[in-house]
Amino acid sequence: MNSVTVIGLGSMGRALAETFLATGHPTTVWNRTPAKAAPLVALGAVQAADAAAAVAANPLIVACLSTFEDTRAALEPADLRGRDLVTLNSGSPAGARAFAAWAVARGARVLAGAVKNVPSAVGAADTLLYYSGERAVFDAYEATLRVLGGDTVHLGDDVDLAALYEMAVGATLLPALTGFFQGAAAVQARGLPVASMVRYSEKWLDMIRSQLPVYAKEIDSGDYGDGASAVKLFLSDAELNAEFTKETGVDTSWQAPLDDLVRRAVAAGHGEDSIAALTEVLRKPS
User: Fold this and answer.
1) Residue 222 to residue 215: CA distance in whole angstroms
2) Exposure pattern of 159-198 as b/e (b: 16+ CB <10 Å)?
3) SS3 61
């Protein structure tokens, strides 16, 4: 069992530390607010006095702070020589590259990663975590990292790949949730419980999920000729949204940029093409 240090004990960091402890990994923890470590100490964790001591305690360091900048600031006082550093935070590909360059210059090896689920799912067999960076580091700790989620993937040696996929995949989240929240407000405006629409929203999301491989194939090939879900079919959404706002009092203005994107696609000659052709418009920001 590899011993591990977890730095950052927010909801996700705490879940990581709890999982390491539950699977028998000796775990040292540190957080800028020391009181957050108390429940983990009760489970058997060792609380480090400061970040430098936390890093010195173990060769494997898992940092779960908000950004690469936060992680760098927390680790600044520490001696990183001979340490293998795994970052599980948000950030851009450029941020990942800059952080890795800083850490490597200080003697560390770096894996940048992401947890693609909520804290309560950490440790589950189907929870996805992906990492990028030197393959030898991933291979050395794969068994340890896999306790955090059974679907553990190494994306490649380029340290910024996890951040790239994190932003590429994560782009779906807020629009999908906002659409659900808009629907929830509209249903409540009719005096109906939001719970009444959940089953139908789930079916709708299942349909969207089933189409992703189709759209991916169209985008990779550049062939958008199958117009079953043609761009032009989405042109009426702007008028419908205005009517929906008038009827329900729900603000649909967040969809205006999406309506504009559709209009730009039609103007660019993609009206008869699959809706996946929006990708071509997104490659050319207005």
Assistant:
1) 10
2) bbbbbbbbeeeeeeeeeeeebbebbbebbeeeeeeeeebe
3) strand
Number of helices and strands in the chain (H, E): 12, 8
State the Cα–Cα distance between residues 19 and 23, nearest whole angstrom. 6
Given a contact cutoff of 8 angstroms between Cβ atoms, the answer to whether 189 and 250 are in contact is yes
Residues 48 and 82: their CA atoms lie apart, in Å, by: 19
**Residue 84 token pair:** 């293998």
Residue in the block written with tokens 């936060």: 70
Cα–Cα distance measured from residue 83 to residue 75, given in angstroms and rounded to the nearest whole number: 12
Query: Token digits for 131?
Result: 């990492």
Specify the DSSP class assigned to residue 240.
H
DSSP 3-state of 153: strand
Residue type, 281: V
User: 206: helix, coil or strand?
Assistant: helix
| Closest to 111 in 3D by CA, of 95, 98, 100, 119 | 100
Q: What would the pLDDT profile of 126-143 be if each residue is shown by its tens digit?
A: 999 999 999 999 999 999
Helix (H, G, I), strand (E, B) or coil at 164: helix
Q: Which residues lie across from 85 on neighbouring strands?
A: 61, 110
- Could you read off the pLDDT of 181-229 as tens digits, one per residue? 999 999 999 999 999 999 999 999 999 999 999 999 999 999 999 767 8
**Alpha-helical segments (H) within the chain:** 11-22, 38-42, 51-57, 68-75, 93-105, 135-146, 161-170, 173-189, 198-221, 237-248, 256-265, 278-282
| Cβ–Cβ under 8 Å, residues 188 and 159 | no
Query: CA quadruple 123, 37, 104, 140: dihedral positive or negative?
Result: negative
Q: What is the pLDDT of residues 22-31, one digit of tens each?
A: 999 999 999 9
* Residue 105, C-beta contacts closer than 8 angstroms, at least 6 positions apart: none
